[in-house]
Fold this sequence. Notes:
Elements: H1 3-11, H2 32-43, E1 51-61, E2 66-73, E3 79-89, E4 94-104, E5 107-118, E6 121-134, E7 140-151, E8 154-166, E9 172-179, E10 186-192, E11 198-202, E12 206-212, E13 218-226, E14 231-241, E15 247-257, E16 262-275
Antiparallel strand pairs: 1-2, 1-16, 2-3, 3-4, 4-5, 5-6, 6-7, 7-8, 8-9, 9-10, 10-11, 11-12, 12-13, 13-14, 14-15, 15-16
Amino acid sequence: MSSAIRISLLTLAIGALYFPAANASESCPITKETNNNNHLALLSIPSFNHAREIETVTERDNTGSFYYFKFNYDRCGQLQSMYAQISKNEQRFRIDSFYDVRKTADGWKNSYNVTLIGLNKLLYAREGNILYGVNQQGLITHSTDSFISGGEGKVEQGVTNGSYTIDDLNRMAYSQLTGSDETVNGEYRFFYNANNMPSFLTTPSVNISYLYDAQNRNNRMIETTVSPYYLGNKLTDCTEWNSQNDCTRSVSREIELFPTYAIDRQTTLRSTYSYWSD
């Protein structure tokens, strides 16, 4: 189950979908491009539309799963914190996960905890801290995930190291993860469309397509998952927008195929926004 830890934020729907971040003020020490790249490196989702705070809650889920997200940004659009609480009902077991991303003096820190519960007992648990380091321009260049995990009487410690690379157009191109957890090792690569917006993400176990409407709003995401534990397909659509062109309601349909059963999940998420004044 450890492969789900690195990708759960991108495979579990975020109610607020993508719209290009507002231009940062000339007084901002970090450029808009650096903010966008760091956002992709930290969360595997594009930046939001210059919001100050975003809160996403579960309006409905037919499997009894629960999702909660809260993002905070400074005036320059730089992520200051992100908290996520996810409880995913997989019929025969439940995955509970918590993520707490905080800006630090020299980058970011993501503290996380994931548990797998089945038959009224703890089957697996993992907790750790991912430290992200930046260069002199404030761009994330490397990360270190130090974790402890185990289940059924077996406990082990591990480390995963990440390196981050931009392309010739100064866009986050890919990250490379290597370490003791072979389920997450590999390349995580972003592709972009003609409008310079992220259009596709490939990882060792998940592929995501970002689709846009006539207003260049990311109105649809298509995700496919191939892991040792299950096969998954998920379609998420934005159904309501606010006056700032940020998504306030998203609806997803997710099919998960396990070896002996299947789950058909339908989820509706609601998002509210507050913005910095110009």
